[in-house]
Amino acid sequence: MAETIMAAAVQMKATFGDVEANLLKAEKLVEEGARKGARIIILPEFFTTPVAFHPTLLAASLPLEGKAYELLVNKAKTHQAYVGGSYLAARGGEVYNTFVLAMPDGRTATHDKDQPTMWENCYYVGGNDDGILNTPVGTIGAVLCWEFIRTRTVQRLLGKVDLIVGGSCWWSIPSGWPPRSFWQWHHRKNRTLMSQTSATFSRLLGTPVIHAAHAGDFRASMPLMPGIPYASSYLGETQIVDRTGVVLARMKAEEGEGVIAAEIIPGRVSPTQSYSTSFWIPRLPVLFRFVWTYQNVYCRHYYRNAKAKGRLLAARQETTPSNPSPNRESSSEHTS
Protein backbone atom coordinates (compact mmCIF):
# COMPACT_ATOMS: atom_id res chain seq x y z
CA MET A 1 0.00 0.00 0.00
CA ALA A 2 2.23 2.83 -1.21
CA GLU A 3 0.22 4.50 -3.98
CA THR A 4 -1.98 7.54 -3.48
CA ILE A 5 -5.68 6.71 -3.25
CA MET A 6 -8.67 9.05 -3.42
CA ALA A 7 -10.87 8.39 -0.38
CA ALA A 8 -14.37 9.59 0.41
CA ALA A 9 -16.29 9.68 3.69
CA VAL A 10 -20.05 10.16 3.97
CA GLN A 11 -21.96 12.24 6.50
CA MET A 12 -25.65 11.33 6.78
CA LYS A 13 -28.81 12.77 8.29
CA ALA A 14 -30.78 9.56 8.59
CA THR A 15 -34.15 8.69 10.14
CA PHE A 16 -34.83 6.27 13.02
CA GLY A 17 -36.04 2.91 11.78
CA ASP A 18 -36.72 3.98 8.17
CA VAL A 19 -34.35 1.47 6.67
CA GLU A 20 -35.63 1.75 3.10
CA ALA A 21 -35.29 5.55 2.99
CA ASN A 22 -31.87 5.43 4.62
CA LEU A 23 -30.66 2.87 2.09
CA LEU A 24 -31.77 5.12 -0.77
CA LYS A 25 -29.98 8.05 0.82
CA ALA A 26 -26.83 5.99 1.36
CA GLU A 27 -26.90 4.89 -2.27
CA LYS A 28 -27.05 8.51 -3.50
CA LEU A 29 -24.19 9.55 -1.22
CA VAL A 30 -22.02 6.63 -2.39
CA GLU A 31 -22.68 7.76 -5.95
CA GLU A 32 -21.53 11.25 -4.98
CA GLY A 33 -18.32 9.79 -3.60
CA ALA A 34 -17.79 7.87 -6.83
CA ARG A 35 -18.25 11.06 -8.86
CA LYS A 36 -15.44 12.58 -6.82
CA GLY A 37 -13.20 9.80 -8.10
CA ALA A 38 -12.95 7.90 -4.81
CA ARG A 39 -11.61 4.36 -4.79
CA ILE A 40 -12.54 3.95 -1.12
CA ILE A 41 -15.98 5.17 0.02
CA ILE A 42 -17.01 4.82 3.65
CA LEU A 43 -20.53 5.19 5.10
CA PRO A 44 -21.18 5.86 8.80
CA GLU A 45 -21.77 3.37 11.55
CA PHE A 46 -25.47 2.37 11.48
CA PHE A 47 -26.07 3.78 7.99
CA THR A 48 -29.40 1.91 7.78
CA THR A 49 -30.71 3.72 10.86
CA PRO A 50 -29.10 5.96 13.47
CA VAL A 51 -29.27 4.61 17.01
CA ALA A 52 -30.88 6.03 20.14
CA PHE A 53 -33.30 4.68 22.76
CA HIS A 54 -36.22 4.52 20.35
CA PRO A 55 -38.83 1.77 19.73
CA THR A 56 -38.28 1.62 15.97
CA LEU A 57 -34.80 0.19 16.52
CA LEU A 58 -36.21 -3.16 17.66
CA ALA A 59 -37.34 -3.83 14.10
CA ALA A 60 -34.43 -2.22 12.28
CA SER A 61 -31.98 -5.11 11.90
CA LEU A 62 -31.37 -6.78 8.53
CA PRO A 63 -29.93 -10.16 7.62
CA LEU A 64 -26.17 -9.87 7.25
CA GLU A 65 -26.43 -10.56 3.51
CA GLY A 66 -29.68 -8.63 2.99
CA LYS A 67 -30.37 -5.29 1.31
CA ALA A 68 -27.60 -3.30 2.99
CA TYR A 69 -25.03 -5.93 2.06
CA GLU A 70 -26.28 -6.02 -1.52
CA LEU A 71 -26.04 -2.23 -1.76
CA LEU A 72 -22.39 -2.24 -0.69
CA VAL A 73 -21.46 -5.13 -2.99
CA ASN A 74 -23.25 -3.72 -6.03
CA LYS A 75 -21.72 -0.26 -5.64
CA ALA A 76 -18.24 -1.71 -5.16
CA LYS A 77 -18.55 -3.71 -8.37
CA THR A 78 -20.13 -0.87 -10.34
CA HIS A 79 -17.50 1.71 -9.41
CA GLN A 80 -14.56 -0.68 -8.94
CA ALA A 81 -14.13 0.77 -5.48
CA TYR A 82 -13.97 -0.36 -1.86
CA VAL A 83 -17.30 0.54 -0.24
CA GLY A 84 -18.00 0.01 3.46
CA GLY A 85 -20.30 0.84 6.34
CA SER A 86 -21.93 -0.80 9.35
CA TYR A 87 -25.52 -1.77 10.11
CA LEU A 88 -27.55 -3.85 12.56
CA ALA A 89 -27.06 -7.34 11.15
CA ALA A 90 -29.00 -10.37 12.36
CA ARG A 91 -27.53 -13.86 12.23
CA GLY A 92 -27.49 -16.95 14.37
CA GLY A 93 -30.32 -15.66 16.57
CA GLU A 94 -28.40 -12.50 17.59
CA VAL A 95 -27.93 -8.99 16.24
CA TYR A 96 -24.48 -7.45 15.71
CA ASN A 97 -23.20 -4.06 14.63
CA THR A 98 -21.36 -5.33 11.58
CA PHE A 99 -19.04 -3.32 9.36
CA VAL A 100 -18.95 -4.73 5.83
CA LEU A 101 -16.23 -3.72 3.39
CA ALA A 102 -17.16 -4.68 -0.17
CA MET A 103 -14.38 -5.03 -2.75
CA PRO A 104 -14.38 -4.46 -6.53
CA ASP A 105 -14.21 -8.20 -7.26
CA GLY A 106 -17.35 -8.96 -5.20
CA ARG A 107 -15.60 -10.21 -2.09
CA THR A 108 -16.37 -8.75 1.34
CA ALA A 109 -14.71 -8.62 4.72
CA THR A 110 -16.49 -7.89 8.01
CA HIS A 111 -15.94 -6.69 11.56
CA ASP A 112 -18.38 -6.82 14.50
CA LYS A 113 -18.04 -3.90 16.92
CA ASP A 114 -16.52 -5.29 20.10
CA GLN A 115 -18.82 -3.66 22.67
CA PRO A 116 -22.05 -1.67 22.34
CA THR A 117 -22.06 1.85 23.79
CA MET A 118 -24.69 2.72 26.40
CA TRP A 119 -28.20 2.43 24.89
CA GLU A 120 -26.78 0.57 21.88
CA ASN A 121 -26.83 -2.50 24.16
CA CYS A 122 -30.62 -2.58 23.68
CA TYR A 123 -30.27 -3.61 20.05
CA TYR A 124 -27.16 -5.75 19.52
CA VAL A 125 -24.38 -7.72 21.18
CA GLY A 126 -20.63 -7.31 20.83
CA GLY A 127 -18.30 -9.37 18.68
CA ASN A 128 -14.83 -10.74 19.33
CA ASP A 129 -12.84 -10.47 16.08
CA ASP A 130 -9.66 -8.43 15.65
CA GLY A 131 -11.06 -5.97 13.09
CA ILE A 132 -8.27 -6.69 10.60
CA LEU A 133 -9.53 -6.91 7.00
CA ASN A 134 -7.28 -8.36 4.31
CA THR A 135 -7.75 -6.73 0.91
CA PRO A 136 -5.89 -6.58 -2.42
CA VAL A 137 -4.77 -3.02 -1.61
CA GLY A 138 -3.41 -3.86 1.83
CA THR A 139 -4.42 -4.64 5.38
CA ILE A 140 -7.22 -2.44 6.66
CA GLY A 141 -8.41 -1.95 10.22
CA ALA A 142 -12.14 -1.46 10.83
CA VAL A 143 -13.05 0.71 13.83
CA LEU A 144 -16.49 1.86 14.97
CA CYS A 145 -17.32 4.85 17.19
CA TRP A 146 -16.14 4.31 20.79
CA GLU A 147 -13.73 1.62 19.61
CA PHE A 148 -11.75 4.71 18.54
CA ILE A 149 -11.27 5.75 22.18
CA ARG A 150 -10.42 2.37 23.78
CA THR A 151 -6.82 1.33 24.26
CA ARG A 152 -7.56 -2.31 23.43
CA THR A 153 -8.42 -1.22 19.86
CA VAL A 154 -4.96 0.28 19.50
CA GLN A 155 -3.42 -2.86 21.00
CA ARG A 156 -5.05 -5.20 18.48
CA LEU A 157 -4.28 -3.04 15.43
CA LEU A 158 -0.91 -1.41 16.17
CA GLY A 159 1.72 -2.42 13.61
CA LYS A 160 -0.72 -4.65 11.73
CA VAL A 161 -2.73 -2.35 9.43
CA ASP A 162 -2.05 0.22 6.70
CA LEU A 163 -5.31 2.16 6.91
CA ILE A 164 -8.20 2.67 9.33
CA VAL A 165 -11.77 2.86 8.01
CA GLY A 166 -14.96 3.20 9.99
CA GLY A 167 -17.44 5.61 11.39
CA SER A 168 -19.58 6.71 14.25
CA CYS A 169 -23.10 7.52 15.40
CA TRP A 170 -21.89 9.71 18.27
CA TRP A 171 -24.67 11.62 20.01
CA SER A 172 -24.51 14.72 22.12
CA ILE A 173 -25.69 15.74 25.58
CA PRO A 174 -29.45 16.47 25.84
CA SER A 175 -30.51 20.05 25.38
CA GLY A 176 -32.95 21.79 27.68
CA TRP A 177 -32.32 19.86 30.89
CA PRO A 178 -31.58 21.98 33.97
CA PRO A 179 -29.13 23.13 35.14
CA ARG A 180 -28.26 24.42 31.69
CA SER A 181 -24.64 25.32 32.48
CA PHE A 182 -23.91 21.74 33.63
CA TRP A 183 -25.13 20.21 30.37
CA GLN A 184 -23.51 22.88 28.20
CA TRP A 185 -20.12 22.17 29.77
CA HIS A 186 -20.46 18.45 29.09
CA HIS A 187 -21.66 19.14 25.55
CA ARG A 188 -18.51 21.17 24.85
CA LYS A 189 -16.31 18.41 26.30
CA ASN A 190 -18.10 15.78 24.22
CA ARG A 191 -17.83 17.81 21.03
CA THR A 192 -14.13 18.48 21.55
CA LEU A 193 -13.51 14.79 22.18
CA MET A 194 -15.32 13.82 18.97
CA SER A 195 -13.49 16.42 16.88
CA GLN A 196 -10.07 15.18 18.04
CA THR A 197 -10.65 11.44 17.98
CA SER A 198 -9.75 10.60 14.35
CA ALA A 199 -6.48 12.56 14.41
CA THR A 200 -5.54 11.13 17.79
CA PHE A 201 -6.13 7.59 16.54
CA SER A 202 -4.03 8.29 13.45
CA ARG A 203 -1.11 9.45 15.60
CA LEU A 204 -1.44 6.41 17.86
CA LEU A 205 -1.20 3.94 14.94
CA GLY A 206 0.74 5.92 12.33
CA THR A 207 -1.89 5.23 9.64
CA PRO A 208 -4.47 7.29 7.72
CA VAL A 209 -8.04 7.32 9.03
CA ILE A 210 -11.28 7.57 7.04
CA HIS A 211 -14.11 8.39 9.45
CA ALA A 212 -17.77 8.75 8.39
CA ALA A 213 -20.46 10.07 10.71
CA HIS A 214 -24.07 11.07 11.37
CA ALA A 215 -25.36 14.60 11.82
CA GLY A 216 -28.76 16.12 12.56
CA ASP A 217 -31.13 16.58 15.49
CA PHE A 218 -33.12 13.76 17.04
CA ARG A 219 -35.64 13.17 19.80
CA ALA A 220 -35.68 9.91 21.76
CA SER A 221 -36.01 8.69 25.36
CA MET A 222 -33.63 7.89 28.20
CA PRO A 223 -33.39 4.32 29.58
CA LEU A 224 -34.98 4.03 33.03
CA MET A 225 -36.35 7.59 32.75
CA PRO A 226 -39.85 7.13 31.26
CA GLY A 227 -41.59 10.26 30.06
CA ILE A 228 -38.42 12.36 29.94
CA PRO A 229 -37.50 13.24 26.35
CA TYR A 230 -33.90 13.12 25.14
CA ALA A 231 -33.65 15.95 22.61
CA SER A 232 -30.19 16.06 21.14
CA SER A 233 -28.12 15.78 17.97
CA TYR A 234 -25.38 13.74 16.36
CA LEU A 235 -21.92 15.30 16.40
CA GLY A 236 -20.80 14.84 12.80
CA GLU A 237 -17.02 15.28 12.40
CA THR A 238 -16.67 13.26 9.25
CA GLN A 239 -12.92 13.40 8.62
CA ILE A 240 -10.13 12.08 6.44
CA VAL A 241 -6.78 12.16 8.23
CA ASP A 242 -3.30 11.38 6.92
CA ARG A 243 -0.92 8.97 8.64
CA THR A 244 0.66 11.75 10.72
CA GLY A 245 -2.61 13.04 12.18
CA VAL A 246 -3.14 15.96 9.79
CA VAL A 247 -6.82 16.45 8.91
CA LEU A 248 -7.08 16.54 5.11
CA ALA A 249 -10.86 16.98 4.85
CA ARG A 250 -13.55 17.63 7.44
CA MET A 251 -17.31 18.07 7.64
CA LYS A 252 -18.79 19.48 10.84
CA ALA A 253 -22.25 18.61 12.14
CA GLU A 254 -23.51 22.08 11.19
CA GLU A 255 -22.72 21.36 7.54
CA GLY A 256 -25.38 18.64 7.47
CA GLU A 257 -25.25 15.85 4.92
CA GLY A 258 -22.68 15.31 2.24
CA VAL A 259 -19.43 13.72 1.13
CA ILE A 260 -15.82 14.76 1.66
CA ALA A 261 -12.88 13.48 -0.36
CA ALA A 262 -9.11 13.63 -0.15
CA GLU A 263 -6.07 11.78 -1.42
CA ILE A 264 -4.34 9.57 1.13
CA ILE A 265 -1.20 7.44 1.11
CA PRO A 266 -1.99 4.22 2.99
CA GLY A 267 0.80 2.65 4.94
CA ARG A 268 2.42 2.84 8.36
CA VAL A 269 4.80 5.37 9.82
CA SER A 270 6.11 5.47 13.36
CA PRO A 271 3.35 6.54 15.77
CA THR A 272 3.85 10.04 17.17
CA GLN A 273 1.65 9.53 20.22
CA SER A 274 1.74 6.87 22.93
CA TYR A 275 -1.15 5.37 24.90
CA SER A 276 -1.51 4.32 28.50
CA THR A 277 -2.72 1.01 29.92
CA SER A 278 -6.06 2.51 31.03
CA PHE A 279 -9.32 1.35 29.45
CA TRP A 280 -10.03 4.69 27.77
CA ILE A 281 -7.58 6.64 25.62
CA PRO A 282 -8.93 10.08 26.69
CA ARG A 283 -9.97 11.00 30.21
CA LEU A 284 -13.76 10.80 30.15
CA PRO A 285 -15.87 13.01 32.44
CA VAL A 286 -17.43 11.27 35.44
CA LEU A 287 -20.91 11.73 33.96
CA PHE A 288 -19.95 9.80 30.82
CA ARG A 289 -18.50 6.93 32.83
CA PHE A 290 -21.57 6.80 35.09
CA VAL A 291 -24.02 6.68 32.17
CA TRP A 292 -21.80 4.12 30.41
CA THR A 293 -21.99 1.84 33.44
CA TYR A 294 -25.69 2.02 34.27
CA GLN A 295 -26.91 1.90 30.67
CA ASN A 296 -24.64 -1.01 29.75
CA VAL A 297 -26.14 -3.07 32.58
CA TYR A 298 -29.78 -2.11 32.07
CA CYS A 299 -29.73 -2.16 28.26
CA ARG A 300 -28.22 -5.65 28.08
CA HIS A 301 -31.24 -6.81 30.10
CA TYR A 302 -33.51 -4.89 27.71
CA TYR A 303 -31.95 -6.73 24.73
CA ARG A 304 -32.32 -10.15 26.33
CA ASN A 305 -35.92 -9.42 27.30
CA ALA A 306 -36.84 -8.13 23.84
CA LYS A 307 -35.20 -11.15 22.24
CA ALA A 308 -37.00 -13.59 24.57
CA LYS A 309 -40.36 -11.99 23.74
CA GLY A 310 -39.70 -12.15 19.99
CA ARG A 311 -39.76 -8.37 19.63
CA LEU A 312 -36.21 -7.92 18.41
CA LEU A 313 -36.13 -9.80 15.11
CA ALA A 314 -39.76 -10.49 14.28
CA ALA A 315 -40.50 -7.48 12.08
CA ARG A 316 -37.87 -8.12 9.42
CA GLN A 317 -38.91 -10.77 6.93
CA GLU A 318 -35.95 -10.79 4.53
CA THR A 319 -34.38 -14.21 4.29
CA THR A 320 -30.70 -14.87 4.71
CA PRO A 321 -29.21 -17.24 2.11
CA SER A 322 -28.89 -20.75 3.52
CA ASN A 323 -25.38 -20.91 2.09
CA PRO A 324 -23.50 -17.68 2.79
CA SER A 325 -21.57 -16.19 -0.11
CA PRO A 326 -18.27 -18.00 -0.68
CA ASN A 327 -16.73 -14.59 -1.40
CA ARG A 328 -17.39 -13.28 2.11
CA GLU A 329 -14.40 -13.21 4.43
CA SER A 330 -14.60 -12.24 8.06
CA SER A 331 -12.27 -11.58 10.93
CA SER A 332 -15.13 -12.53 13.26
CA GLU A 333 -15.33 -15.88 15.01
CA HIS A 334 -19.13 -15.84 14.84
CA THR A 335 -20.80 -17.80 12.09
CA SER A 336 -23.69 -16.56 10.03
Overview of the molecule:
With 336 residues, the protein is an alpha/beta fold. It has one domain (5-319): 4-Layer Sandwich (Nitrilase/N-carbamoyl-D-aminoacid amidohydrolase). Helices cover 26% and strands 30% of the residues. The protein is built from 5 helices and 14 strands. It has helices at 19-35, 67-79, 151-157, 180-205, 286-308; strands spanning 5-12, 40-42, 62-63, 82-91, 94-102, 108-112, 132-135, 138-144, 163-167, 209-222, 225-241, 247-252, 258-264, 328-330. Strands 1, 2, 3, 4, 5, 6, 7, 8, 9, 10, 11, 12, 13 and 14 form a 14-stranded mixed sheet that branches. Helix 4 (180-205) links the parallel strand 9 and strand 10 (209-222). The longest helix has 26 residues, at 180-205. The chain is globular and about 55 Å long. It starts with a strand and ends in a 6-residue tail after the last strand.
